């Protein structure tokens, strides 16, 4: 434990990462450890393979999509800042986060960004909308029971309709946000350990 | 009211007094013959009194609730205690001695279990486990802290000379007293907090604490009690160790007993499908057995029942029939409320008996102050520690409510009564103090907590209907968090919950749920199903109004005019027997087209009949507060509908009112869908589509058959028969969508009234063999009462069919003798156009229908169909609505 502060020096650009993600030094050190542990060949970056080897992710219905979210724009590797940037979405919202001066960019763990992270897991083609088809795919992953395809489609229809306000047959991010406005997203999309 | 109740009470009492004197006389005289009138009070005394007490309590409750003002200001528990005081005073005055005490034996063996079972069974498990850490801390550490500080402080008070010397108690006695007075009481907390509606987290923490602290209380009480009985001089160091060890034994043992029984219960209900009637009984018996077993082994019985209820619910609810579910729910609530009422009333009555207690102001005041003070202090200290670990810290206001919500109740009273006066000389003082503390917390704190919560602006619980999106996204979030914890390498709460869910899905659920239930067990699906039902209900209700305006003027459906005249609501009100409705139908004109429609309706109804019954169950399952009595359905539904309409206005409007907007969108979507899903209907699937779909359906059906071939008729009905229906309907919908020239938007709302009657009849008429069962037993009862549901279904079926069904009733009437024969010829009619025939047909029927169509019928009949088809197209307008409907059925079917 005493080696933590010294470890922090090992991480490149600690300060800028901290500023961007809002992670505490201790968290960064901890994440860096984890990063290095995942990086099996000490390449200095993670590939999809590295993440796929995490056993529990394989059984997670959204595992593949979540792994994919670490590799934006089809890149093959993610370095530590990128790794941390994704995880920063799950940093709990703290009081000092809320009353930030408006000039600063919105912190990664804002409600909006948390929602956006979830949204882009649905929106596979990145067109800013969850189409019915995309919804159907998610539902197929999530509804574990033996529901027939038609039933799934009906659910998908219904789900899209429910959120769809402008009648374009797809759920835009705005509509997505609205459908969840009553939910305590800040709480439900945060992990305490990631302070 | 009160007087009436009292006189009721006095009557048997008087009878009891007179009886013994009269009897000998009558015996002495030679009896002329048969005794005309005999007074046998003593033989019925005990149960009679019990029944009377409960009756009095219930009547009192009715009286309290006559005035909403009173109950909104004063918690029911306060009123009951006060009533008990009054009644006790009267009994004391009449009988000259205090009767009807709250006996600890009665309390622990009979009154407490139902309340605890109720709270355990209906505990929101997710919320509970989300806050388990906090709950356990408050329950264990908090209770220990309260007991020791209160006991020690009282002892200090005595040392300081503030307690009268006649209270002979040492440190151990005070600790014993502290242990029994320190525990927050589940009954009191529940009674008060249920009316306060604080936010869920706060509620679950306070309430969970009150349930789980039982283990600590029991241990502390027993340990202290035995120490006191042994005498402080004889207590060895090992005894202290044993005391600590027993804490674990009692709590973990209690929980284990509960879980074992939960497992047994779930497993048992898996095999009850032929004896549905005993399902509720099993739930109660096994839960009670858990309680008694734990009590027998001196483990924490409350913990056992809580865990039993908590653990078994998921599986039991999936296994038992919906009627049993409703029965369990209501019986549990009834018993709990009954027990609670009696407890509070008896508490009041017991307090009157002055022979049992002795007053000491110093002790009473000191206890009150210490209790409040140490509770608050304990809460603040623990919360401070907990907040270091909590994602959402508990703020100051929460802490105030938690401190103030620490109500003491009947458990403390029962425990203090149990003390042995020879060993605890100060028992009488303790009793008096306990009574005062209980009364103070229940009455004063109970009265003031509501204004306090309002004044502090505590976050209230907000009830919003679950939406599919929320449910889906919530699951997504769970998965995301679990995945992120994996990535971060931190095995935290989400990780373990995910693990547990997987384990549960893989092994436990498979083991404990019957296969048919396991297959459809999914939360998203559940929400979807419930939403559909709610929509359907509101839709129907709406439809009643729409009908008169738009329905009549619809140009596309000339044949409808006749039916449109009867408004839906009229029909609903009418709700005579199915037969009566059918009669009307018979009178209507028939035509070839109509006949076809009628057949379709038969099919649909036959299929849909089942789901209708089902739906109620799952609808009521999650709304405890709702009065799901069948008779009240209507009112409740209307309210629901209104709310729902508001929240869903946008969707609704899209679907029902705006013609232009949603339609294009939908067709577009359809197309997409078609691409995505080979099986789905694409642009003009009529010719190919039919064959394909039919084939698919058939295979499914046969699978089902094989699976459950052993099952009884009813079981088939319940669990599988429905399946094809679902598919069928959905297919219909798709068909509709595909065909959709979607001009006539309001049509979904138009409910041809007479068709419903026909449909009512249909279920059994379309009847395959198993349906007949229902006809005999349920038609008369269920159909009329269930009108609303039935209405929905008929509605939906109508919608999907969109054909005017009423006129074809004659065909229907023909059907009963040879349902299959009648339907077969008709079925082919549809095939060319759509896969309908497969709908409601039992496998045999469907097969028959298909083969028919394949072989011969297609061409000639298609011509006949043409007009109808066009007709249909109109009605099929909104796929969205249609899909809702059909889904509902699907679900039902799968159940």
UniProtKB/TrEMBL annotation, chain A:
The keyword Repeat applies. PROSITE patterns: EF_HAND_1, EF_HAND_2. InterPro entries: Calcineurin_B_homologous, EF-hand-dom_pair, EF_Hand_1_Ca_BS, EF_hand_dom. It is found in: Cell membrane; Cytoplasm; Nucleus. Keywords: Calcium, Cell membrane, Cytoplasm, Lipoprotein, Membrane, Metal-binding, Myristate, Nucleus, Phosphoprotein, Protein transport, Repeat, Transport. SMART domains: EFh. Its main location: membrane. Residues 26-61, 110-145, 151-186 form the EF-hand domain. GO terms for biological process: protein transport; regulation of calcineurin-NFAT signaling cascade; regulation of protein import into nucleus. The keyword rRNA-binding does not apply. It holds the Pfam family EF-hand_7. One of its GO terms (cellular component) is nucleus. One of its GO terms (molecular function) is calcium ion binding. SUPFAM superfamilies: EF-hand. Belongs to the calcineurin regulatory subunit family. CHP subfamily. This is Calcineurin B homologous protein 2 isoform X2. The gene is CHP2.
Automatic annotation (TrEMBL), chain B:
The keyword Lyase does not apply. It comes from the Eukaryota. Belongs to the monovalent cation:proton antiporter 1 (CPA1) transporter (TC 2.A.36) family. The lineage of its organism: Eukaryota, Metazoa, Chordata, Craniata, Vertebrata. The keyword Oxidoreductase does not apply. It is a multi-pass membrane protein. It is found in: Cell membrane; Recycling endosome membrane. Its main location: membrane. GO terms for biological process: regulation of intracellular pH; sodium ion import across plasma membrane. Gene3D superfamilies: 6.10.140.1330. Keywords: Antiport, Cell membrane, Endosome, Ion transport, Membrane, Signal, Sodium, Sodium transport, Transmembrane, Transmembrane helix, Transport. The chain crosses the membrane at residues 46-66, 78-95, 135-157, 169-193, 202-223, 243-267, 364-385, 397-417, 429-449. Residues 660-672 have a biased composition (Basic residues). GO terms for molecular function: potassium:proton antiporter activity; sodium:proton antiporter activity. The gene is SLC9A5. Residues 54-455 form the Cation/H+ exchanger transmembrane domain. Residues 1-16 form the signal peptide. Residues 701-720 have a biased composition (Acidic residues). Residues 656-688, 700-720, 815-883 are annotated as: Disordered. Residues 854-865 have a biased composition (Polar residues). This is Sodium/hydrogen exchanger. GO terms for cellular component: plasma membrane; recycling endosome membrane.
């Amino acid at each position: 434990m005493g080696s933590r502060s010294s470890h922090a020096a090992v991480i490149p650009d600690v300060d800028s990462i901290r500023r961007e993600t809002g992670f505490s030094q201790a968290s960064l050190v901890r994440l860096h450890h984890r990063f290095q542990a995942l990086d099996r060949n000490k390449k200095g970056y993670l590939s999809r393979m590295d993440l796929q080897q995490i056993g529990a992710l394989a059984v997670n219905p959204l595992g593949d999509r979540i792994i994919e979210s670490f590799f934006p724009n089809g890149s093959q590797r993610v370095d530590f800042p990128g790794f941390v940037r994704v995880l920063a979405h799950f940093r709990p919202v703290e009081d000092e986060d809320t009353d930030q001066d408006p000039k600063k960019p919105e912190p990664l763990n804002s409600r909006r960004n948390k929602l956006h992270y979830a949204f882009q897991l649905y929106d596979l083609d990145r067109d800013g909308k969850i189409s019915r088809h995309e919804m159907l795919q998610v539902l197929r992953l999530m509804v574990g029971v033996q529901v027939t395809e038609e039933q799934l489609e009906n659910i998908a229809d219904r789900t899209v309709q429910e959120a769809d306000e402008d009648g374009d047959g797809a759920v835009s991010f705005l509509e997505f946000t609205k459908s969840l406005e009553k939910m305590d997203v800040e709480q439900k999309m945060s992990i305490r350990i990631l302070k | 009211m009160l007087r009436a109740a009292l006189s009721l009470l006095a009557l048997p009492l008087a009878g009891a007094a007179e009886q013994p004197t009269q009897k000998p006389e009558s015996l002495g005289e030679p009896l002329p013959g048969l005794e005309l009138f005999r007074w046998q009070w003593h033989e019925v005394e005990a149960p009679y009194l019990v029944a009377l007490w409960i009756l009095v309590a219930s009547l009192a409750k009715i009286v309290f609730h006559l005035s909403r003002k009173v109950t909104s200001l004063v918690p029911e528990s306060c009123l009951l205690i006060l009533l008990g005081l009054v009644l006790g005073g009267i009994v004391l005055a009449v009988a000259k001695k205090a009767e009807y005490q709250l006996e600890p034996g009665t309390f622990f063996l009979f009154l407490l279990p139902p309340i605890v079972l109720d709270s355990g069974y209906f505990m929101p498990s997710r919320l509970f486990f989300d806050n388990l850490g906090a709950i356990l801390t408050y329950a264990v550490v908090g209770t220990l802290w309260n007991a020791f500080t209160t006991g020690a402080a009282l002892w200090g008070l005595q040392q300081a000379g503030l307690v009268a010397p006649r209270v002979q108690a040492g440190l151990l006695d005070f600790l014993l007293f502290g242990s029994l007075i320190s525990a927050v009481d589940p009954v009191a907390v529940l009674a008060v907090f249920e009316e306060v509606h604080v936010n869920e987290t706060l509620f679950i923490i306070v309430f969970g604490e009150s349930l789980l602290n039982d283990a600590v209380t029991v241990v502390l009480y027993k340990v202290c009690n035995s120490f006191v009985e042994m005498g402080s001089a004889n207590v060895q160091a090992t005894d202290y160790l044993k005391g600590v060890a027993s804490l674990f034994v009692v709590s973990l043992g209690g929980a284990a007993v509960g879980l074992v029984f939960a497992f047994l219960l779930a497993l048992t209900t898996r095999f009850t499908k032929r004896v549905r009637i005993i399902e509720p009984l099993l739930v109660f018996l096994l839960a009670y057995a858990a309680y008694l077993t734990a009590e027998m082994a001196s483990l924490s019985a409350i913990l056992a029942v809580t865990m039993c209820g908590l653990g078994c619910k998921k599986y039991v609810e999936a296994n038992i029939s919906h009627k049993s579910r409703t029965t369990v729910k209501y019986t549990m609530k009834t018993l709990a409320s009954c027990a609670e009422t009696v407890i509070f009333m008896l508490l009041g009555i017991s307090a009157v008996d002055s022979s049992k207690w002795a007053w000491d102001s110093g002790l009473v005041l000191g206890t009150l102050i210490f209790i409040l003070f140490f509770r608050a202090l304990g809460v603040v200290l623990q919360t401070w520690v907990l907040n270091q670990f909590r994602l959402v810290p508990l703020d100051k206001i929460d802490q105030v409510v938690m401190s103030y919500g620490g109500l003491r109740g009947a458990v403390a009273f029962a425990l203090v009564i149990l003390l042995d006066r020879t060993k605890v000389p100060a028992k009488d003082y303790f009793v008096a103090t306990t009574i005062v503390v209980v009364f103070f917390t229940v009455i004063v704190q109970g009265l003031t907590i509501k204004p306090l919560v309002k004044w502090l602006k505590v976050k209230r619980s907000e009830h919003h209907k679950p939406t599919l999106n929320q449910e889906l996204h919530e699951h997504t979030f769970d998965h995301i968090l679990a995945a992120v914890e994996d990535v971060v390498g931190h095995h935290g709460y989400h990780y373990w919950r995910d693990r547990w869910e997987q384990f549960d899905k893989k092994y436990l659920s498979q083991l404990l749920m019957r296969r048919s239930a396991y297959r459809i067990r999914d939360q998203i699906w559940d929400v979807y199903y419930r939403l559909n039902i709610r929509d359907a209900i509101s839709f129907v209700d709406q439809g009643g109004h729409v009908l008169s305006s738009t329905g009549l003027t619809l140009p596309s459906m000339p044949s409808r005019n006749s039916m449109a005249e009867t408004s839906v609501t009229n029909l609903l009100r009418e709700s005579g027997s199915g037969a009566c409705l059918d009669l009307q139908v018979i009178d209507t004109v028939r035509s070839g087209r109509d006949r076809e429609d009628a057949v379709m309706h038969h099919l649909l109804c036959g299929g849909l009949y089942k789901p209708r019954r089902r739906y109620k169950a799952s609808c009521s399952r999650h709304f405890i507060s709702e009065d799901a009595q069948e008779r009240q359905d209507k009112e409740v539904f209307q309210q629901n509908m209104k709310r729902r309409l508001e929240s869903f206005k946008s969707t609704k409007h899209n679907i029902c009112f705006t013609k232009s907007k949603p339609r294009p969108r939908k067709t577009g979507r359809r197309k997409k869908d078609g691409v995505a899903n080979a099986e789905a209907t694409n642009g003009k699937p009529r010719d190919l589509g039919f064959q394909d779909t039919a084939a698919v359906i058939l295979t499914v059906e046969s699978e089902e058959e094989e699976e459950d071939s052993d099952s009884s008729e009813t079981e088939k009905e319940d669990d599988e028969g429905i399946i094809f229906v679902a598919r069928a309907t959905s297919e219909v919908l798709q068909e509709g969508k595909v065909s959709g020239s979607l001009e006539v938007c309001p049509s979904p709302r138009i409910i041809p009234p007479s068709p419903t009657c026909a449909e009512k009849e249909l279920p059994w008429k379309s009847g395959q063999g198993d349906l007949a069962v229902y006809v005999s037993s349920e038609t008369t009862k269920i159909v009329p009462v269930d009108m609303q549901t039935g209405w929905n279904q008929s509605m939906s079926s109508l919608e999907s069919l969109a054909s005017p069904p009423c006129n074809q009733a004659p065909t229907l009437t023909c059907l009963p003798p040879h349902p299959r024969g009648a339907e077969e010829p008709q079925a082919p009619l549809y095939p060319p156009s759509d896969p309908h025939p497969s709908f409601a047909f039992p496998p045999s029927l469907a097969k028959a229908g298909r083969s028919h169509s394949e072989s011969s019928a297609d061409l000639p009949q298609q011509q006949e169909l043409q007009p109808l088809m066009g007709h249909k197209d109109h009605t099929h307008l909104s796929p969205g609505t249609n899909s809702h409907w059909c889904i509902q059925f699907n679900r039902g079917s799968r159940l």
